[in-house]
Amino acid sequence: MIRLRTVSKTYGSGPSAVTALRNVDLHVPKGQIHGVIGLSGAGKSTLIRCVNLLERPTQGIVSVDGQELTGLSGTALNQARHRIGMIFQHFNLLTNRTVYRNVALPLELMGMARGEIRERVDPLLKMVGLDDKTDQYPAQLSGGQKQRVAIARALASRPKVLLCDEATSALDPQTTGSILALLRDINRQLGLTILLITHEMEVVKTICHRVSLISDGALVEEADVGDFFTAP
Ligand code: ADP
Ligand code: ADP
């Protein structure tokens, strides 16, 4: 479902250039939850942002759902991005929009009709447990509730893939547990493929099927989670 082939990314050029990814190969099959773990500065954020081309790789190929994204730009890239949802550490909600209208936003941008938007948004808000908060603003919500809004928004375009960029790093352990449980439900119920980055072992242990270790821009190890955490 997600495929990276010899992906490299260098920021800047000349003496100040920083190479954040080095020849990364990664394959995440449909329905899998794959975690990438590594220290701060290892290249996790660059890696996940290369999957939906928020960052453009300097070299290599990125494909999602059988389509090569690295060859696309403009409208074709925007269309392809509808199949990729993303959530962030700091939620990235729009403060002047209600819960309902945050989730509706991507559908409004796609030009969907109001009635159809409503048919999508209502069940999503129910699924994330916020159907009683539709008219609240983000400032009125807890961190966990904000991330639930962000998850509903990420799912609005019915993506095949969900990218999670340190999605629980700003949350307390209990809230982290409930968000991870929600992500696992979504993976099971919708068959959604999930790629997440984290610096927390516990996150990987809790929901990932498979894990890669990133160090200085390179994937240095990959294993099933059971094997990764079992002493040899
Ligand atoms: P992580 O998410 O693991 O902390 P990042 O992908 O954010 O790692 O960063 C990897 C390397 O790339 C770091 O050395 C970082 O300073 C550098 N870097 C990240 N983003 C940029 C940028 N926009 N411009 C220049 N250097 C960057
Ligand atoms: P604007 O200020 O852009 O006019 P509104 O608050 O009037 O925004 O909302 C725009 C549309 O979004 C509404 O006409 C309605 O279709 C939809 N909408 C907003 N909140 C809800 C909600 N809680 N439930 C259902 N639809 C809503």
From TrEMBL:
<dbReference type="GO" id="GO:0016887">
    <property type="term" value="F:ATP hydrolysis activity"/>
</dbReference>
<comment type="similarity">
    <text>Belongs to the ABC transporter superfamily.</text>
</comment>
<keyword id="KW-0547">Nucleotide-binding</keyword>
<feature type="domain" description="ABC transporter">
    <location>
        <begin position="2"/>
        <end position="232"/>
    </location>
</feature>
<dbReference type="GO" id="GO:0005886">
    <property type="term" value="C:plasma membrane"/>
</dbReference>
<comment type="function">
    <text>Part of the ABC transporter FtsEX involved in cellular division. Important for assembly or stability of the septal ring.</text>
</comment>
<dbReference type="GO" id="GO:0005524">
    <property type="term" value="F:ATP binding"/>
</dbReference>
<keyword id="KW-0067">ATP-binding</keyword>
<keyword id="KW-0029">Amino-acid transport</keyword>
<protein>
    <recommendedName>
        <fullName>Cell division ATP-binding protein FtsE</fullName>
    </recommendedName>
</protein>
<keyword id="KW-0813">Transport</keyword>
<keyword id="KW-1278">Translocase</keyword>
<keyword id="KW-0472">Membrane</keyword>
<dbReference type="GO" id="GO:0006865">
    <property type="term" value="P:amino acid transport"/>
</dbReference>
<keyword id="KW-1003">Cell membrane</keyword>
